[in-house]
C-alpha cells in the first residue's frame, strides 16, 4: 500500500466509498472574458496567435538530472524529451513553486505561490475539506516553531487556467494526476470538460502496472501500464475535438512518483546497465523514467500525425525535485541485492520536500511556435507561477480584475531575449524528516543569490538564515550569512514584504519550546526509519558555516 509520506494517511476503503457516492458535475461556462493584454506583467509581448493549442505536460517528482536534456546520463534514457527540446527552448534554471506536488500544481492553475493559495502540502486526497490554512496549535517541545496546516482543496473561487481558457471557446481536458481535491473540487469544477481517470489520490492507484484500484477506470488488458493508457486516452480525445476548435490539455503524469514499479522488461533492460558505484543506480526508477518518456512520444506522434505542430504550444516541467528519501531494493545482473535511493539530484543539494535546490530546481522545455527557437537554451530563472500569465497573454485572454498573480509573463525569455525577474519566493512552512530537511522555511532568489529564512531558529526568537551564491556554489555548501549580513538584511526584507502583501499564514514561535529538548544536530538527518539514513555527527550544527 502506497502511503503519503507527508501525513502518512493511506487512501482507505471509507474514502473510496465516499468518492463513489459523488456525482460528476460539469462546470458551466463562466462567461466570455474580454480579450486583452495582461497589465502589470514584466516585459510582455503581443501574442502571436489567439487560437494556439496548448499541451501542458507535468512530470511528478522528476529530478533536474533525471532526464538527458540537462546533460548526458549514464543510466536514464529520454529520447522523446530530447526530441521536444530540439523543437523549442530548454530552461536550465526552472523552478517549481514548492518542493512538493500539490502546492506546485495549484501555482500552475492560479499563477499564485503557495504562500498566497494556502496549499503548502500534498493533502488533496485527505477527507477533511480545508480551504484556508492555519497555524498548528502545538508542536514538539524541541521545535522552535509551530508549523502550518495546509489547505486541502483548491478553492473553486479561483480563476483557474482551465476556466479562463474554456470560457474562450477551447476544448479542455485533464489526464492523469490531480491531487487538489475530489468533487466538488475536481478538474470538472476547475474548467475541464474531461477528467481521466478522475482520481484524487497522490499517485497511481496501487500500481503503475495493472491491476489498478482506480474508481470506475479499469485496465484494457493484463499488465497495462497507466502511462500507456493515459497517453492513448489523450490521443483519443485529441481525435474527438471538432475541426478548427482550439484545445487546452493537461497531461499531468503519474510518473515518476511512488509506488516504485515498472514494466518487467524495462527493469531487466536497465538492470544490465547499472553501475552500483554511481549515484543513480535504480533499475526500477530508470524503467519508470523510460515509460514516462514513451508517453510523451505518443503525444508528439499524434501532434505530428494531425499536422498541428505549428499551432500547438507544448510545455514540459516537473512539479518538484527528485525523490531522495525513499529507498528501493534492487538486484544486480548477477543476482546480488542492494538498497538505493530512487535517484540523486547531484550536484544539487537535497531533493523533494526540501527548499534546497534539489527540491525545487526542475527540468523544463517550452515549445511555442512563433516565439521559441528550435534547439535553444535559456538560463533565465522561471517558476511554475509564470505559466499562468504567459499562457493567457499569448492567447489574448485577460486576467480578471483584482485577481493577484505572482508569476511573470516570460515570453521574452522564451524568445531568447535578455530577461531577468526581480525575485522569486518558495514558501514551505513544514518540516518532514527527509534527507536535508529544514525547519519551517521560506526562501527568496535574487539573481545568483539565494536566502533561506528558517523561522525562529536563531537566538532569542530571531530567525536563522542560509545565504548562498548559486553561481559559485550550486551545491549550497557554503553558508555566507555571517559574511554578508547586509545582503541577508536586504533579501530578508523582500521576504517580509512579500509575505505581508500575500497575507500569508506563517509559522509562530512555539510557546511550549523546551531548550533542553532542542537538537539542531539532527536537522538535515533522515529520521523516518529508512535504511541507510546518515547518522548525525557529534557537534553538527544547523547554522554553522558549511
Q: What's the short version?
A:
The protein has 546 residues and is α/β, with parallel strands linked by helices. 21% of the residues lie in helices and 16% in strands.
* Assembly type: single chain
What is the averaged pLDDT score? 89
CATH superfamily of the domain at 48-426: Alkaline Phosphatase, subunit A
Instruction: Indicate the radius of gyration in whole angstroms.
Output: 22 Å
What is the fold-level CATH name, i.e. the topology of the domain at 48-426? Alkaline Phosphatase, subunit A
Helical residue percent?
A: 10-25%
Shape: globular
CATH C-level label of the domain at 48-426: Alpha Beta
Largest sheet, in brief, is: 9 strands, mixed
How many separate helices? 12
Amino acid at each position: 500500500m502506497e502511503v503519503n509520506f507527508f501525513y502518512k494517511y493511506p487512501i482507505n476503503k471509507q474514502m473510496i466509498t465516499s468518492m463513489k457516492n459523488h456525482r460528476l458535475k460539469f462546470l458551466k461556462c463562466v462567461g466570455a472574458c474580454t480579450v486583452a493584454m495582461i497589465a502589470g506583467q514584466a516585459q510582455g509581448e503581443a501574442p502571436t496567435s489567439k487560437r494556439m493549442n496548448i499541451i501542458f505536460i507535468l512530470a511528478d517528482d522528476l529530478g533536474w538530472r533525471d532526464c538527458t536534456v540537462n546533460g548526458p546520463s549514464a543510466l536514464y534514457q529520454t529520447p522523446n524529451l530530447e526530441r521536444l527540446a530540439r523543437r523549442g527552448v530548454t530552461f536550465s534554471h526552472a523552478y517549481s513553486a514548492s518542493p512538493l506536488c500539490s502546492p506546485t500544481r495549484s501555482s500552475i492553475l492560479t499563477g499564485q505561490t503557495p504562500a498566497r493559495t494556502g496549499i503548502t502540502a500534498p493533502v488533496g486526497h485527505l477527507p477533511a475539506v480545508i480551504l484556508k490554512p492555519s497555524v498548528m496549535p502545538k508542536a514538539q517541545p524541541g521545535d522552535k516553531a509551530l508549523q502550518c496546516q495546509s489547505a486541502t482543496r483548491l478553492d473553486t473561487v479561483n480563476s483557474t487556467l482551465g476556466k479562463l481558457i474554456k470560457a474562450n471557446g477551447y476544448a479542455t481536458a485533464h489526464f492523469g494526476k490531480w491531487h487538489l481535491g475530489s468533487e466538488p473540487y475536481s478538474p470538472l469544477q476547475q474548467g475541464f470538460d474531461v477528467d481521466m481517470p478522475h482520481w484524487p489520490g497522490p499517485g497511481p492507484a496501487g500500481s503503475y502496472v495493472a491491476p489498478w484500484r482506480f474508481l470506475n477506470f479499469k485496465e484494457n488488458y493484463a499488465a497495462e501500464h497507466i502511462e500507456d493508457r493515459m497517453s492513448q486516452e489523450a490521443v483519443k480525445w485529441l481525435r474527438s475535438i471538432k475541426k478548427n476548435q482550439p484545445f487546452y490539455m493537461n497531461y499531468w503524469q503519474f510518473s515518476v512518483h511512488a509506488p516504485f514499479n515498472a514494466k518487467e522488461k524495462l527493469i531487466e533492460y536497465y538492470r544490465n546497465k547499472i553501475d552500483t558505484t554511481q549515484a543513480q543506480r535504480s533499475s526500477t526508477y530508470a524503467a519508470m523514467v523510460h515509460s514516462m518518456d514513451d508517453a510523451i512520444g505518443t503525444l508528439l506522434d499524434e501532434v505530428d500525425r494531425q499536422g498541428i505542430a505549428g499551432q500547438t504550444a507544448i510545455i514540459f516541467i516537473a512539479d518538484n525535485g527528485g525523490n531522495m528519501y525513499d529507498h528501493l531494493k534492487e538486484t544486480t545482473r548477477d543476482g546480488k541485492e542492494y538498497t538505493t535511493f530512487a535517484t540523486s539530484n547531484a550536484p544539487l543539494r537535497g531533493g523533494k520536500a526540501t527548499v534546497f535546490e534539489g527540491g525545487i530546481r526542475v527540468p523544463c522545455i517550452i515549445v511555442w511556435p512563433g516565439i521559441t527557437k528550435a534547439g535553444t537554451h535559456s538560463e533565465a530563472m522561471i517558476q511554475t507561477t509564470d505559466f499562468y500569465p504567459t499562457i493567457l497573454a499569448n492567447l489574448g485572454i485577460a486576467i480578471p480584475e483584482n485577481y493577484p498573480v505572482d508569476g511573470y509573463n516570460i515570453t521574452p525569455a522564451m524568445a531568447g531575449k535578455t530577461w531577468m525577474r526581480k525575485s522569486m519566493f518558495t514558501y514551505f512552512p513544514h518540516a518532514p524528516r527527509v534527507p536535508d530537511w529544514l525547519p519551517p522555511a521560506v526562501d527568496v532568489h535574487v539573481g545568483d543569490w539565494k536566502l533561506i529564512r528558517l523561522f525562529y531558529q536563531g537566538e532569542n526568537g530571531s530567525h536563522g538564515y542560509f545565504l548562498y551564491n548559486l553561481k559559485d556554489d550550486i551545491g549550497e555548501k557554503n553558508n555566507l550569512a555571517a559574511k554578508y549580513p547586509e545582503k541577508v538584511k536586504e533579501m530578508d526584507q523582500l521576504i517580509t514584504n512579500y509575505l505581508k502583501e500575500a497575507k500569508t499564514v506563517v509559522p509562530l514561535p512555539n510557546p511550549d519550546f523546551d531548550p533542553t529538548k532542542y537538537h539542531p544536530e539532527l536537522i538535515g538527518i533522515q529520521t523516518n526509519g529508512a535504511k541507510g539514513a546518515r547518522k548525525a555527527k557529534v557537534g553538527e550544527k544547523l547554522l554553522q558555516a558549511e
